Amino acid sequence: MKGRMISPGKVEGEAIVSPDPIGFYGGIDAETGIVIEKGHPLEGKCVTDKILVFPCGKGSTVGSYVIYGLKKNGVAPKGIINKETETIVATGVILAGIPCVDQIDIEKIKNGDTVLLDADNESVEIK
Predict the structure, then answer these.
(1) Catalytic residue chosen out of the listed positions 7, 60, 64, 123
(2) Domain tally, the chain
């Protein structure tokens, strides 16, 4: 699938998929990488070393810093795939150096799929 590069890099890993937007500030614990937002489809799941797939971000601009904090604490996702990356997620992945692509039909990706995210070539491949 062709998309648009938000942050460069190439990673392969297991997809963890949310049908709902993610708010990083108050939604993901920057110390553990666990989704803590009550009622979220990924509540209790860990994003560490996964390819995190979700439609878009939501919430506070502090979310950019939370993404950076996830990376600094060694609990960040390997990469992020969005339908639409807005400025909060874009700023966070660029600061943290996490590969990210958007304009992807995320409904084709399922939990547990092995995904090759090649942001340098603006592509996502389900293995």
Answers:
(1) 60
(2) 1
